Amino acid sequence: TSITSAKIQVNGVHLHYQQTGEGNHAVLLLPGMLGSGQTDFGPQLKSMNKKLFTIVAWDPRGYGQSIPPSRDFPPDFFERDAKDAVDLMQALKFKKFSLLGWSDGGITALIAAAKYPTLIHKLVVWGANASVTQEDVRIYNGIRDVSKWSEKVKKPLEEMYGHKYFAKTCEAWVDGISHFAEKSDGNICQELLPDIKCPTFIIHGEKDPLVPRAHAEYIHKHIKGSR
């Protein structure tokens, strides 16, 4: 089946999304920092079972084709993304849906599953974290300068954004996420994890250079019945 690409107005912004499949099980794919449906989920849009699933991949505000507005990082940017994501799916007339989130999209998915439990069917997150430590801030500052990134990772993002927007937004992201470390416990959404009631599957890359494994273990420990 073909992939539809469209925009829909949600919470005062025009959000871009891609949709494919005709299955009863609706799934929203949530990309990571600077990511979009196309850059982060090309293989899933192409290869997930179109008979079982209806698949939606979105570009959060300020990312991908959901520009304008330009991306910013107020203290509640994860909550804002979670509300945008859920409201997008409701605008598309999905009553209940599952979330597949990676990296920042994983954090967004955790918050959405906790805050909108009646709407979320199942949850899969990978490369996610519920807090930010001083060590994390050190790691984030290592990617602040995009000219030091590998060509492979940098190229699709530079093609999508142009160098200036890409570089500026990456710096703004590092500043935005580092603010969480200034709180005593570095909390992003730790207190919300016990509110997640849907079946939850946590995946983590052993060699993830940006998110140490302890984050995945913390999330697993605090979401009852998660695997």
Write the layout of secondary structure elements.
Blueprint: E1 4-10, E2 13-20, E3 25-30, H1 37-47, E4 53-59, H2 77-91, E5 97-102, H3 104-115, E6 120-126, H4 134-141, H5 151-161, H6 163-178, E7 200-203, H7 213-222
Parallel strand pairs: 3-4, 3-5, 5-6, 6-7
Antiparallel strand pairs: 1-2, 2-4
CATH top level label: Alpha Beta
In the predicted model, the low-confidence regions spanning at least 5 consecutive residues are: none
Could you say how many structural domains there are in total? 1
CATH topology name, in short, is: Rossmann fold
Order of helical and strand elements: EEEHEHEHEHHHEH
Q: Share of helix among residues?
A: 25-40%
Q: Please, how many helices?
A: 7
Question: How much strand content do the residues show?
Answer: 15-25%
Please describe what this structure looks like:
This protein is an alpha/beta fold. It has one domain (3-130, 188-222): 3-Layer(aba) Sandwich (Rossmann fold), CATH 3.40.50. Helices cover 37% and strands 20% of the residues. It has 7 helices and 7 strands, in the order βββαβαβαβαααβα. The protein has helices at 37-47, 77-91, 104-115, 134-141, 151-161, 163-178, 213-222; strands at residues 4-10, 13-20, 25-30, 53-59, 97-102, 120-126, 200-203. The protein has a 7-stranded mixed beta sheet, with helices on both faces. It is globular and about 45 Å long. The two termini are 32 Å apart. The mean pLDDT is 97.
